[in-house]
Structures are given as structure tokens and as C-alpha cells.
């Protein structure tokens, strides 16, 4: 029975390993020579699992004379190779290869000579082995040329690849690799000189990793993974030479080298890789150009041949999706894509204080993230002006645009990303009078100039009198002031704008159900920029249903069939609660101040509570900001309820339950906001054993919305289980002052990519909290910032840091100081 279990376990292990192995992509690496330390980085990448970690199963193949490495790599996908400087000449001859990485910054190829030969010119009439008149000897020929020497000036001896021939004095000179043969010469104690072509300007690369253009085209990520894992292997190998040597002796020593020979080779390899000067694997275009010029001067390649570096050197796709060569070149030249941003087409596309907002904006941002491109929103123009800009090339992309026959003549469209309903709004007293567009024959219907509705109404309802307006608000005003009988636009946009401007005498009359008015929102580019359309379409194709649903839930409301009056009461109650809370708290503050005045501590107390009120102002602003979205959402639902009741539209029970759940979530969010506010303002001096990390996180939560709004990045490095005895709320007040000050500086100085870094650690008996920002530093005398003054910074009283220092010194028996660094300011808090 026991044996039976062993067999089963063995089978399961085998099956698991087999399945795992099957998941790896098999590739082959063809070496340019036999196994030795020259390939140490590749060995390590395999043995340490670096290849496996990126999903690769790599097979190494040694060189053999019958193999043409270039042709083998080009024979099929999944094959990589290493080669000499001929990688450049082979490309210039038309071989479709790609240079992936270089490892030897200097070639180890040199000429060993007898002691009497000191210069290349001394080789005249001598027996020289292994140097021909072909491209493999290009480095030697460059050196010879500088001394007026040609390959006809010495006696050619065919290569034996055995340094013993030089030791036995069969030749006067021979081509060798300094990484290997020098060891044997030294061991034999043979006197010699070395002619190194590198010294004479023949700076050629060696150990060049390459693959085929087909491999790069179809598997760019695999190429990058293989390259990066190989570089990682080399980084490890150079730091752990002894370990690599033991590995070679055990597993890869087909040349039967001794340990001493491998130690010598390892040192030589590192010396020509120059890892302290050049990044491992890097490729320098200038070095390639020098090699090309040398090949041309020697007549090995056509003088008219040039290198297309974009084709020849592997460029990892900086973008997040597969792109064609043409698409890559387009984006590389384009840099920034300009996208249209409307003024008031909420909730799809609008602008608040210079910031683009809306469903279409978020959708475009998601596309940009999927692709990996930079976009810039352009606003301040009418729809027709945007169309003209798209035509003349000053704008690249238009969002939420409907495809029409007229537009197809000059625009290219993506697939639709949102289908919406057009509705018609009328004055409240006329809402029941209009049931369809046919009822508007002879009537005035307002539409936005340049919108698809203008073209479609003129085509399918020529009897309707069209009033062209510039935007949604103008259309609603036209109806409200009897300039038009109705206004046609997207239902969501109508509801949003009516609510925003509190236009009370308008009602949705009907939804437009005519098939010609199917409003499918797309993204459009100029017809001459179809390549950009194709790139954007790839981004759209990579958006998941979950991501799209999240955006839908963020921006669009569901309809419910009756008004939840309890919900209205709760909203009003919560609003009153916060108002009452603030009033009561202010009364309480005044009482506190009076008590402290009687105790002869007027100045300190006034400053303390003034700062407390300043902090409270920040908190109330944050509450208002955090409540804005759920209140708008709830208010929108209520408004829609009214319109649905008016139109006698029903909704299913399941949908009602789902919407109720969402509404409860909004209310819970508002409740949590109040709880956070209440906890922060508990007025007591009670001490507790609290967590430093918890105090930091609670303070950040208070200003969470403001942090997100200003795109501030927070970095935290907090030791675990840092705790202290004291009043947590007082420490949080200090932290809030520091965070708020940094936030104000970012806004005032318009800092790009603002960051706040928070460190907390224990040193001896003290806890050190460091708050660092990149706001440009503190102006003037740093010590003055802890003195009460009238601040020049907007939204700041000037007392915050004075109170913060007072709290740290008197309540925590600690210290607080500040200093400037290169990018900003650093505040250090030291408490027991």
C-alpha cells in the first residue's frame, strides 16, 4: 500500500512538472564558439531561473564548423544567436537580422608575436597564422592600413586554432583571443608581444546577441524578456565569478578547461565588458557607425549602404500593446496627441476650472493608458471650431462624435464605445403635447450647431424648423424663454445641465426612437490620420468589460420607479447634522477660549484654537468635496424619478433593488466621512498607546479627496509596530498642518508631479517621523516658519507650524525642525 502511494505521489509530481514545463516558451541560443566563461551570463540566467521566471525555456547550442549562425537564426522563429562584428556587415548585405544586445565592448581579438616584433610593420616577411583578407580579419586589416601594411606583405599560414604552434615557434605571429590563449602563453612562460587592434582605432563590438526580424515582429515581448533576463544573468555572473566557474566545471566544460584557465578568462571577460563604464547589454549607435565606416573603407560593404537603426537595433515597445512598425514610427514622431474637450457636454465631456472631466474623458484616459501614449486636452472652442481644427491638423482626436455620411467624407471613426438616447425637452406645460418628432412639424426645435442631429433632422424631418445653438445651456434657455418649442440632445446631458443650472420649468417630453437617430458615440481622426485611428482602435479593443462597467457606474444613473422620500429626509438630515455640528463646535471653542483667558494663557490658547479652526476649515472643505459626488448622484436620481413618473415609465423589481443598494452605498460613504471628522475633533487630552502608522493613515484619509484632486503622490516607509503613548489627535493635527502646507505650496507654485514622502522609524528611545515634499523648499529664514505670523500663502493662517512645534515640545517632549533639500523641504519630528 505504501509503495502504491509513493507511485501516485511520484506521478503527480511528474505530471505537475510536465504541465509547468509545457507552459514555458522554448527558444534556442546558438553560441559563436564552444562553452566557456564567455557565456557565463547566459548560463546563470538559466541556472538561477531568470529565464524561467519570464516564461522561457532556453536551449544552448555550441558552435560547430558546419553551422552558419546567421542562416540558422533566420531559419525559423525562436532562435537567437551570438556573433562577432560581422553582425553589422551581414545586415548591410540585406540579412533581416536585429541587434538585440552587446556584451563585449571591446573585441578580444589580437595578434601575439615574438618579442622582436613590436609594431604591425614588423610583420613584413613573417609567418602569420589565422589572418586573411576577409571580413573576419577586418580589425587586423584596419591596424595594418595605418602602417601601410597589406596582407600580401607576410606569409599566410592557415589557422590551426592551437596556440601550441606559436609556442613551438612554427609561426612568428598568430591571431588569438586575449580571453583564452594568453593564459596558456603565460603558463608556458613563452616571451611574446601583443598587437591589439583596439589601440589603433579598430573598436569593434564582440559577443553580439541577435535574432531575426520575424522574431521581433511576432514576439517583441519575448525578445525583451530574453534580453533582460540575459542581462540580469550577466550582472550576477560578474559579481559571483567563483560560483560561475564551479558551474562551468560541473556542467558546461566541454573544452576541459582547468579552474585556473577559467579564472583567468573571467577576469579578461570583465575587462572587455567595461561594466563600470557602459550598461551591460547596451548598444551605441556611434560605435556601429564607426564599424560601418571601417567596413566601407576596407571595401567589404557597398559605399551606398546605410543602416536603418530603427530596423537594426531592437527597440523594446515603449507602448503597452502590439504595434506595427509604421504605428511605432508615427507615435515616436507624434509625442503628444491633442484631444478635444468641450465646455459643457456633461456628464460625457466637459471642463471644470481648466480640468477635463466626464465619461468620454475617462474613457480616452483609459485608452491612452492601455496604449502608453501622452494626451493633451484642448478646450475653449465650439463644436464646429473643433471640427475645423480636426480638418486642418491642429487637433488630432475628437471624442463622443457620431458617424454620419457627411462626416465620413473627411473623418475616420473607431467602433462605437457608448450608445446613448436622444431626448427632447420642452416647457413643463407642453410636455404631454409632444410624443415624437412628427409632432414638431412646423415647430421650432433647437439643436447644437454641427451636431449630428442638425444633419439628420434636415434630412428626415425637413418640416421641422431648426434653431441652431452653440451649446446645451443655450438650447435649454431657448426653450425656457419661448425662443424654441423644444431642444434635442442626449438624455444624460439634458438631465445634468437642467440640474446644474436649476432650470425648473423644463421637462423631458420623449425619447427619440427613430433608427436614424441611433446615437453611437465614437472617436474620430482626420481621414489623413487613419493610422492614429487604428492605434486608438487597438486601445479600445484592449478595454475589458469590467473596466467599461466601472466607468459606466461612475458616470451614469439608473432609473427607479418611485420617489424615496425617506432618502430625501436622510440627505437633509445629514446636511443639517453637519451644520449643527459645526455651530456647536464653534460655541464650544469660544467657551474654551474664555476659560483659558481667565487662566492668563490668552495668547497661546487663541493661537491654538485659531489653528484648530483653520484645520477644521480644511476638513469641512474636504467633507464638502467628498460629499459632492454622492449628493449630486442622489439628487440626480430624485430628479429622474420625477421625470419617469411624469412619463409613466416603469422599472423592474430587480433593478429597483440594485439601485437601492447603490443609494445605500452613497449614504454609507457620507456617514463614514462624518465619523472620520468626528474622531479627529474629539476634544480631550486623554493619552493612549497608539500606532504611528494609524495616525498617519487617518490624517491622510481626512485629506484623501484633496490629494487625489491635486494628483499628489504619497510615498510611505513606516516601520512596523511603531507605537507611542500620547494623544493621537494632537499628533494628527501636527501631521495635518505639514500635509496641508505642502499641498498649498504645490498649488501656489504649480508644481508638476507633486509628491509627499513620509518616513517613520525608531532610533534608540526616540521615534523619528520625516515628512518630505518636492515643492521647491522654504523661502527666507527657515527658523522663522515656527514663529506666529501672517502667512502670505493663500488658505493658510501662518500659525500652523507655531502650534505644531508647541504640541511636539509640550505634549510629546520632542522636537521638530525643518531644512531645505534639492527638490523641496524636509520636516523632522523627534518624539519619545
TrEMBL record:
<comment type="pathway">
    <text>Cofactor biosynthesis; thiamine diphosphate biosynthesis.</text>
</comment>
<dbReference type="GO" id="GO:0009228">
    <property type="term" value="P:thiamine biosynthetic process"/>
</dbReference>
<dbReference type="InterPro" id="IPR001638">
    <property type="entry name" value="Solute-binding_3/MltF_N"/>
</dbReference>
<keyword id="KW-0479">Metal-binding</keyword>
<keyword id="KW-1133">Transmembrane helix</keyword>
<comment type="subunit">
    <text>Homodimer.</text>
</comment>
<feature type="domain" description="Histidine kinase">
    <location>
        <begin position="622"/>
        <end position="832"/>
    </location>
</feature>
<keyword id="KW-0408">Iron</keyword>
<dbReference type="InterPro" id="IPR036097">
    <property type="entry name" value="HisK_dim/P_sf"/>
</dbReference>
<dbReference type="GO" id="GO:0000155">
    <property type="term" value="F:phosphorelay sensor kinase activity"/>
</dbReference>
<keyword id="KW-0812">Transmembrane</keyword>
<keyword id="KW-0784">Thiamine biosynthesis</keyword>
<dbReference type="Pfam" id="PF09084">
    <property type="entry name" value="NMT1"/>
</dbReference>
<dbReference type="InterPro" id="IPR015168">
    <property type="entry name" value="SsuA/THI5"/>
</dbReference>
<protein>
    <recommendedName>
        <fullName>Thiamine pyrimidine synthase</fullName>
    </recommendedName>
</protein>
<dbReference type="Pfam" id="PF00497">
    <property type="entry name" value="SBP_bac_3"/>
</dbReference>
<comment type="function">
    <text>Responsible for the formation of the pyrimidine heterocycle in the thiamine biosynthesis pathway. Catalyzes the formation of hydroxymethylpyrimidine phosphate (HMP-P) from histidine and pyridoxal phosphate (PLP). The protein uses PLP and the active site histidine to form HMP-P, generating an inactive enzyme. The enzyme can only undergo a single turnover, which suggests it is a suicide enzyme.</text>
</comment>
<feature type="transmembrane region" description="Helical">
    <location>
        <begin position="565"/>
        <end position="587"/>
    </location>
</feature>
<keyword id="KW-0808">Transferase</keyword>
<keyword id="KW-0472">Membrane</keyword>
<dbReference type="InterPro" id="IPR005467">
    <property type="entry name" value="His_kinase_dom"/>
</dbReference>
<comment type="similarity">
    <text>Belongs to the NMT1/THI5 family.</text>
</comment>
<dbReference type="InterPro" id="IPR003594">
    <property type="entry name" value="HATPase_dom"/>
</dbReference>
<dbReference type="InterPro" id="IPR036890">
    <property type="entry name" value="HATPase_C_sf"/>
</dbReference>
<dbReference type="GO" id="GO:0046872">
    <property type="term" value="F:metal ion binding"/>
</dbReference>
<dbReference type="InterPro" id="IPR027939">
    <property type="entry name" value="NMT1/THI5"/>
</dbReference>
<dbReference type="GO" id="GO:0106344">
    <property type="term" value="F:4-amino-5-hydroxymethyl-2-methylpyrimidine phosphate synthase activity from histidine and PLP"/>
</dbReference>
<dbReference type="Pfam" id="PF02518">
    <property type="entry name" value="HATPase_c"/>
</dbReference>
<keyword id="KW-0663">Pyridoxal phosphate</keyword>
Amino acid at each position: 500500500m505504501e509503495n502504491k502511494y509513493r507511485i501516485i505521489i511520484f506521478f503527480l509530481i511528474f505530471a505537475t512538472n510536465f504541465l509547468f514545463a509545457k507552459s514555458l516558451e522554448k527558444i534556442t541560443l546558438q553560441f559563436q564558439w564552444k562553452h566557456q566563461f564567455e557565456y557565463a551570463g547566459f548560463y546563470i540566467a538559466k541556472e538561477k531561473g531568470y529565464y524561467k521566471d519570464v516564461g522561457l525555456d532556453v536551449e544552448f547550442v555550441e558552435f560547430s564548423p558546419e553551422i552558419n549562425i546567421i542562416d540558422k537564426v533566420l531559419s525559423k522563429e525562436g532562435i537567437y544567436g551570438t556573433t562577432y562584428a560581422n553582425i553589422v556587415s551581414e545586415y548591410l548585405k540585406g540579412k533581416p537580422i536585429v541587434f538585440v544586445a552587446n556584451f563585449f565592448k571591446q573585441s578580444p581579438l589580437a595578434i601575439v608575436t615574438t618579442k622582436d616584433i613590436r609594431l604591425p610593420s614588423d610583420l613584413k616577411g613573417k609567418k602569420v597564422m589565422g589572418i586573411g583578407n576577409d571580413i573576419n580579419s577586418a580589425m587586423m586589416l584596419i591596424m595594418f592600413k595605418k602602417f601601410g601594411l597589406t596582407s600580401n606583405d607576410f606569409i599566410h599560414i592557415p589557422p590551426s586554432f592551437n596556440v601550441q604552434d606559436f609556442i613551438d615557434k612554427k609561426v612568428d605571429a598568430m591571431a588569438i583571443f586575449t580571453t583564452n590563449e594568453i593564459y596558456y602563453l603565460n603558463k608556458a612562460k613563452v616571451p611574446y608581444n601583443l598587437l591589439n587592434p583596439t589601440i589603433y582605432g579598430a573598436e569593434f563590438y564582440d559577443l553580439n546577441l541577435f535574432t531575426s526580424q520575424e522574431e521581433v515582429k511576432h514576439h517583441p515581448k519575448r525578445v525583451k524578456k530574453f534580453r533582460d533576463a540575459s542581462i540580469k544573468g550577466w550582472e550576477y555572473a560578474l559579481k559571483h565569478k567563483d560560483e560561475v566557474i564551479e558551474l562551468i566545471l560541473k556542467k558546461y566544460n566541454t573544452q576541459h578547461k582547468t579552474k585556473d584557465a577559467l579564472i583567468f578568462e573571467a577576469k579578461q571577460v570583465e575587462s572587455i565588458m567595461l561594466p563600470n563604464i557602459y550598461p551591460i547589454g547596451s548598444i551605441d549607435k556611434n560605435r556601429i557607425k564607426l564599424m560601418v565606416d571601417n567596413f566601407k573603407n576596407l571595401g567589404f560593404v557597398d559605399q551606398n549602404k546605410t543602416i536603418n537603426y530603427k530596423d537594426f537595433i531592437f527597440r523594446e515597445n515603449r507602448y503597452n500593446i502590439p504595434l506595427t512598425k509604421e504605428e511605432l514610427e508615427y507615435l515616436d514622431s507624434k509625442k503628444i496627441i491633442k484631444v478635444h474637450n468641450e465646455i459643457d457636454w456633461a456628464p460625457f465631456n466637459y471642463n471644470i476650472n481648466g480640468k477635463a472631466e466626464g465619461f468620454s474623458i475617462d474613457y480616452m484616459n483609459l485608452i491612452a493608458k492601455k496604449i502608453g501614449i501622452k494626451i493633451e486636452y484642448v478646450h475653449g472652442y465650439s463644436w464646429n471650431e473643433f471640427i475645423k481644427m480636426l480638418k486642418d491638423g491642429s487637433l488630432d482626436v475628437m471624442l463622443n462624435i457620431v458617424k454620419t455620411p457627411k462626416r465620413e467624407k473627411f473623418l475616420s471613426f473607431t467602433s462605437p464605445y457608448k450608445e446613448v438616447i436622444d431626448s427632447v425637452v420642452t416647457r413643463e406645460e407642453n410636455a404631454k403635447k409632444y410624443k415624437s418628432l412628427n409632432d414638431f412639424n412646423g415647430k421650432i426645435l433647437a439643436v447644437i450647431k454641427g451636431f449630428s442631429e442638425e444633419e439628420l433632422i434636415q434630412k428626415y424631418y425637413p418640416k421641422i424648423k431648426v434653431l441652431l445653438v452653440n451649446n446645451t445651456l443655450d438650447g435649454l434657455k431657448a426653450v425656457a424663454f419661448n425662443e424654441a418649442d423644444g431642444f434635442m440632445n442626449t438624455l444624460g446631458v439634458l438631465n445634468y445641465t437642467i440640474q446644474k443650472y436649476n432650470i425648473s420649468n423644463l421637462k423631458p417630453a420623449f425619447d427619440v426612437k427613430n433608427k436614424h437617430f441611433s446615437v453611437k458615440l465614437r472617436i474620430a481622426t482626420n481621414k489623413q490620420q487613419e493610422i492614429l485611428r487604428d492605434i486608438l482602435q487597438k486601445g479600445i479593443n484592449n478595454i475589458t468589460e469590467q473596466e467599461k462597467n466601472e466607468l459606466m457606474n461612475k458616470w451614469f444613473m439608473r432609473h427607479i420607479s418611485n420617489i424615496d422620500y425617506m432618502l430625501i429626509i436622510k440627505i437633509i438630515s445629514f446636511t443639517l447634522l453637519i451644520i449643527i455640528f459645526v455651530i456647536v463646535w464653534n460655541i464650544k471653542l469660544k467657551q474654551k477660549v474664555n476659560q483659558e483667558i481667565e487662566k492668563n494663557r490668552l495668547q497661546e490658547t487663541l493661537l491654538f484654537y485659531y489653528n484648530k479652526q483653520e484645520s477644521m476649515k480644511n476638513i469641512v472643505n474636504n467633507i464638502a468635496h467628498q460629499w459632492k459626488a454622492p449628493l449630486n448622484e442622489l439628487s440626480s436620481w430624485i430628479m429622474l424619478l420625477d421625470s419617469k413618473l411624469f412619463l409613466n415609465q416603469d422599472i423592474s423589481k430587480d433593478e429597483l433593488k440594485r439601485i437601492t443598494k447603490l443609494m445605500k452605498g452613497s449614504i454609507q460613504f457620507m456617514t463614514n466621512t462624518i465619523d472620520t471628522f468626528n474622531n479627529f475633533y474629539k476634544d480631550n487630552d486623554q493619552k493612549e498607546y497608539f500606532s504611528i502608522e494609524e495616525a498617519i493613515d487617518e490624517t491622510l484619509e481626512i485629506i484623501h479627496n484633496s490629494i487625489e484632486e491635486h494628483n499628489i503622490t504619497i510615498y510611505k516607509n513606516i516601520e512596523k509596530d511603531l507605537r507611542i503613548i500620547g494623544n493621537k489627535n494632537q499628533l494628527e493635527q501636527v501631521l495635518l498642518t505639514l500635509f496641508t502646507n505642502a499641498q498649498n505650496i504645490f498649488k501656489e507654485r504649480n508644481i508638476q508631479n507633486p509628491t509627499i514622502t513620509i518616513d517613520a522609524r525608531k532610533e534608540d528611545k526616540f521615534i523619528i517621523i520625516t515628512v518630505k515634499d518636492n515643492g521647491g523648499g522654504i523661502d527666507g529664514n527657515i527658523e522663522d516658519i515656527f514663529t506666529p505670523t501672517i502667512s502670505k500663502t493663500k488658505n493658510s493662517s501662518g500659525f500652523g507650524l507655531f502650534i505644531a512645534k508647541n504640541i511636539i515640545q509640550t505634549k510629546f517632549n520632542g522636537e521638530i525642525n525643518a531644512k531645505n533639500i534639492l527638490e523641496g523641504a524636509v520636516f523632522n519630528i523627534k518624539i519619545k
